[in-house]
Amino acid sequence: MFALVLTVCYLGGGCDDMVVDAFDTVQECHIAMRQQGLHQAGCYPIEEFIDGDWIPAHSHADF
């Protein structure tokens, strides 16, 4: 399973990761990301997200 994760960074500093939804396949996750217009989001295996084994974004880039 895959989680659609949106990282929100605040003007005052700090960031939070928000799980938007969960999907059975990465393809379903990518389709939902495009449909919702979430260009700054990502699809991650739920096990890695829950266990904290993934590394969230630590820098900001303008696209």
UniProtKB/TrEMBL annotation:
InterPro entries: DUF1482. This is DUF1482 domain-containing protein.
